[in-house]
Amino acid sequence: MTNARDHISLDEQARAVLRGNDRGGYSVPTDGLYPYQWNWDSGFAAWGFAQFDLPRAWSELETLFSGQWPTGMLPHILFHRPDPGYFPGPEVWGTEGLGPVPSSGISQPPVAATFTRLTYEKDRAAGRVHIEALYPKLLAWHRWFMQWRCHEGMIFVTHPWESGRDNTVDWDGPMAAIDPVGIDPYTRRDTAHVDPHMRPTKEDYDRYLYLVQRGRDLGWDDAKMADSMPFKVADPTMTFILLRANRDLLALAAELGEDSAEIEGWINVLEEGAERLRNPASGVFEAIDLKTGAHAGNVTSAAFLCWYAGIECPVMLGELMEAFEASQFPVPSQKVTDPKFDAMRYWRGPTWTMMNAITALGLIDMGHPDAAEELRIRSARLLAERGFAEYFNPHTGDPAGGGTFTWTAAIWLAWAS
Ligand code: 9WN
Q1: Cβ(391) to ligand 1 under 6 A?
Q2: Across residues 180-184, what is the average pLDDT?
Q3: For residue 1, is pLDDT > 50?
Q4: What is the atom index within ligand 1 of the atom nearest the CA of 346?
Q5: Is the C-alpha dihedral spanning 109, 314, 339, 345 positive or negative?
Q6: Three-class secondary structure of residue 151 per DSSP
Q7: Which architecture does CATH list for 4-416?
Q8: Confidence band (pLDDT; 50, 70, 90) for 323?
Q9: What are the sequence ranges of the domains in the chain?
Q10: Element (H, E) at 226
């Protein structure tokens, strides 16, 4: 571990990353690679800012909700200012007129209610006005998920980008079933910033773009998308994160004296749905392709979010112990013994420390403080030694993807340090 002197400078470095990625009221995930405001990244950014600048934490969340569509949908990217460094930009999404700010047409894991609550707990007096303003917006967003993205209590995604785990092995079956015919010619920008072997493949990108075109053809209409998008996969990340977010929204409702029956109903529905994600063969929580009913059949970091959702699972505890034995680093995005594991390729192997941070929050809540502390110590050592990168090789700790990353610096300040 690091000594106290290192800690002081690491805290300063982490704050400098957040300041450096601050574009005035909102954060970009990292300069260059991701020049816009991303939805769940902003939740983590708020958690980081809440450790040293509470007004800035609130503005992160409030600017995010400035892009909320009248339907309640909160887009996964807000294109506040044009930037040629990222593809696909606003012109490809074709969402003009659907929301108040140029944006993508899909959402992302709803961590905002949880980070609103955590920010409020640090700022009870001045924060009241902020939760009063945010509460109805959070409620509308969660209602949108329950109405349009919920199948038998499981939250499904209509695009891999919606899940935040773009090229996870979980999507291999449903993605292979898509024939990306008729996509417009395009030039990727991500591989100009990052080594291509750390990024999704061309086959993935062709399908990402095909799905964007399909959404655009459907006018991003929620009912039509639920019916007709070629990709429809129940996702443990989304289901667990929304379940947790609803519990935090319930706490905010109690604080504000709001009626909470609707939220309690959602919690019951999602608790039942989460059980359907368990693969009866393995006991592991897995994605389900709703086109075929097939479980994905592998262990990803999404399954370790069960505790975050308030769900106990001895099988996952066993998986966690196995992961601890297999590597000295925090839990990877894909089990290291899986034949499809790829140590450097994005969501197919690398360790994402923000996933570990919320996994640890859940472990603490569910009475596993030692396992939570193990994740924290491993993450702290990794970040102290290798910096605030986007993700890391789970065998060597080598940093990968974008550098000086907002959510990595944020979780250093809020949790790991
Ligand atoms: C597409 C910003 C985002 C994260 C996602 C991560 C990655 C984008 C991309 O970067 O996705 O949304 O272009 O690769 O997968 O979780 O929110 O950090």
Answers
A1: no
A2: 96
A3: no
A4: 15
A5: positive
A6: strand
A7: Alpha/alpha barrel (1.50)
A8: very high
A9: 4-416
A10: helix 222-228
